[in-house]
Amino acid sequence: MIQQGLRPIHSVRRLGILLGVLIGVVVGEQPSFAQTPVYDFFERTLESLRREADIPAMSAAIVQDGVLVWSRGFGRQDVEGNVAATPNTPYAIGALAQTLGSTLLLRKCVDQSYLEVTDRVVRWTPEYPDDTTRVGELLSHTAPDGTFRYSPLRMSALTGVIEECAHRKYPQLLAQELFELLGMTNSVPGQTLGTPTSDDVAMFDSARLARYADILRQVAIPYRLISGRPFRNTDVMPVRIDFAQGVVSTVIDLAQFDLGYDRGFLDPATRVTALSQASASGKTGLGWFVQAYNNEPVAWQFGVIEGAYSSLIVKVPNRRLTLILLANSDGLSAPFALEAGDVTTSIFARTFLRNFVP
Fold first, then answer.
1. What gap in Å lies between CA 87 and CA 74, rounded to an integer?
2. Dihedral sign, Cα of residue 98, residue 103, residue 104, residue 108
3. pTM for the structure as a whole
4. Residue 232 CB-half CA count within 13 A
């Protein structure tokens, strides 16, 4: 069981905060690389993989021991405009949003209220079409027959559950109870907020909507590959937010999320449960895929928007180590069939794990 692998963290590690070079580094700052050959090598390899996959832009970050130790932008977020990607480049993160939503639900509805993951969904949203499905089954992609079936669309039904238990609209909850609490200043709770509706105006004040619109104007341009060349995808339409889609974020902000996750955003017992095997298949926790690599528990999640964007987060809880990758094509996730539940099929994840979890 993954839960059994979540052991106390030792203060001295083989990567060891790399001879103290990283002491004092905070989110948004860059450590010195003079004494960090492992990061130099990983950075070169990542750039090579990006080029081989013909991904126009990719942003990356690594968190270790409660510190953002490394972040980089690769390639161009706007090829035609020759705009370089940075760690602060915003991207649509696709179904990676479900990890944010699951974390928020566990905090607001389980830790701070009386929802149980064993509750039937219809207890909270009576219109749900199956009166036997439980909240935890949606969080873990467990189908009605008890088998694993990856379906962010099915998980989207939890939007109504969290709104009912927390008595607020989901975009407001995400903005106020996750983004603002964790300092995710360049994240937007909805790709459509650049042209707000009357409902959006009722949820957010004008200053906040103006800030969201400014971030959305900076989102990396989406590209699709045609005959091995990236072409701007003008067919991608912004989607309204729900539990499993519609979020825009940056690797720096997702690093803030990861730091908060490990600093008590969830009750410790809830965190352990979320990162443990919660389905009969053993492939998922609550909002995360889970598996082992070299006898180390690994929790991870991905997103893919076909012909447009992709995202990946790989978390090694016992080592307090996390990789975050965002890209403006689907090449980071689509080729690897990650929906089957094995992160090692991704050359990007595998390269990270081989370098940092030998």
1. 9
2. positive
3. 0.89
4. 9
Rounded Cα gap, residues 40 and 317, in angstroms: 23
Residues paired with 323 in a beta bridge: 62, 314
pLDDT-based confidence at 313, cuts 50/70/90? very high
Give the angle subtended at the CA of 126 by the CAs of 124 and 127, to the nearest 5°.
125
Q: Is the dihedral of CA 187, 189, 192, 194 positive or negative?
A: negative
> Is residue 10's pLDDT more than 50?
no
Q: What mean pLDDT value characterizes the chain?
A: 90
Query: Which residue do the tokens 């080029």 mark?
Result: 51
Contact (Cβ atoms closer than 8 angstroms) between residue 330 and residue 113: no
Exposure letters 101-120 (e unless 16+ CB within 10 A, then b): bbbbbbbbbbeeeebebebb
Q: What are phi and psi of 168, to 5 degrees?
A: -150, 160
pLDDT at 28 over 60: no
**Pairing status of strand 321-327 against strand 57-64:** antiparallel
Give the position of tokens 């017992």.
Answer: 269
How much is the average pLDDT of 24-28? 38
Backbone angles phi, psi at 12, to 5 degrees: -110, 130
The DSSP output letter for 300 is E
| d(C-alpha 101, C-alpha 301), whole Å | 12
Q: Which residues contact 52 (CB under 8 A, 6 or more apart)?
A: none
Specify the pLDDT at position 278. 79
**DSSP for 161-230, written as a single string:** HHHHHHTS-HHHHHIIIIITTTT-TT-BS-GGGGS--HHHHHHS-HHHHHHHHHHHHTSPPPEEEETTEE
